[in-house]
């Protein structure tokens, strides 16, 4: 049966996932992660069916308690009888293919709940990297009816911030005394945050951290006229503050939906994605060009100075650029 | 007269530079630095005339005394009645167009000597960046008859090491107690060094530095069967060791010329350059594609979900990739 599913053509896999088969969905995501022709086929099937889903990005320094927080959010959403998908993104990890990453173990509580679908993704595999794999995975989940999608990233590096910043609502998780751990990318985090969470708020320094954040928001150049990121305090391990956090996410969603900001952001993201697809396609073409007999001949002519590099490039690129 | 020269067509400028007019040469290098169509025209003129020149790269941490050393080398070569060109490359500087950078002032001693041509280049300007501008500038100097070309880079970052590593002989300049200042890129420096110079060798710690270098060379994986980088001690400010340094450069030149290593390296570099030209040409094409009416229409269709990003990309790339 497993072997059979592995060999199922994409349209049948997709239909099975639509019908609620979790293994088929997992297989679809593996194909997306690989990023070859089948990923594109899935993309074409998912794309027209997507758009109703809403993504919430969670990011913060390692150890900030994001997984515990995610687990608490899942619990809250399940109590509201909402279905949910979680993408845990680890740009630095070589593990992939649905493997449970490090502290993701905490989410295992929900692993047997059919209303919850948890998936880890890493950079390895997808030809276009996470910048293309993540939106494709989100759209597949969206298309098969998972309308709440949490995208959790494990760090505060450039890639994590970029991935998290592409969500519809981005939650930045900090801890009391957070400053040092994210020093390098504070500006990046300030820019993407729609909601700040001070997690482990029962620890010393929570009030100072709130004051720090308030001050940073006061001083920032960002346009907070229409939406100033609220600061919510939580204790992930006890679930304290989770309801308030989720209500704040809902408030932000209502704001971006009614103000037109959501439509703008999504249009911007799609344009960026299309640019990236085109750039990568041309990059692949460049690698194809710089090989083969004609390439060998031309480089020899350049070396022998019977032609120059620009004329050789023109010749390699005839009809292309 | 200056205005007239500014407007001179490239072939006439080139001929004037060939005839020894320094201002025309300076103008050629400015055009190369800008990197547009005229740069390519110069490239095509210079390419078949180049190949007799020999480049010596000098790199090392800021403050290692490279400019003083360069100035001493110039003095030595002038005493041998050799003509020389110096390209001072500063990837981090926004200054360009022949500006004298920072400590380059020391080279001013030679500024009025017609046998010496000194030029600073920075990243700003050339569309292809320094990776393309540097070899183009070297070839122009070579083509107009400057057969010794020193390429000095100001730091030990990735870009500096890459630029310096593309010379025919690469001299890495260190100081007593150098370890800390280049820690981050020791491996990169070890890889490109054909000759090590311990400059400021009259200072404390020179012997330890020599031992350190010897040990690093012993431990390195690099193939030193045919050429193990010699270590020369110099005091740039007094000129001590300069003759030995230059003799070592000449030894290395003789080695790479007779062993075939020089031909191999140059072929490799030309292939890399051709690849870079092709990649950049395609990248420019990608930027051109992602603009205009058709682009606007297609992105709107993608946003409206009447088409998907891959179909849109296919359509934008018809005939291209």
TrEMBL record, chains A, B:
Gene3D superfamilies reported in the protein's UniProt record: P-loop containing nucleotide triphosphate hydrolases (3.40.50.300)
Molecular function (Gene Ontology), one example: GTPase activity
CDD domains for the chain: MMAA-like (cd03114)
SUPFAM superfamilies: P-loop containing nucleoside triphosphate hydrolases
Key words, A-Z: Chaperone, GTP-binding, Hydrolase, Nucleotide-binding
Record flagged with keyword Protein transport: no
PANTHER family: LAO_AO TRANSPORT SYSTEM ATPASE, LYSINE/ARGININE/ORNITHINE TRANSPORT SYSTEM KINASE
Protein name: Putative metallochaperone MeaB
Organism: Ilumatobacter coccineus (strain NBRC 103263 / KCTC 29153 / YM16-304)
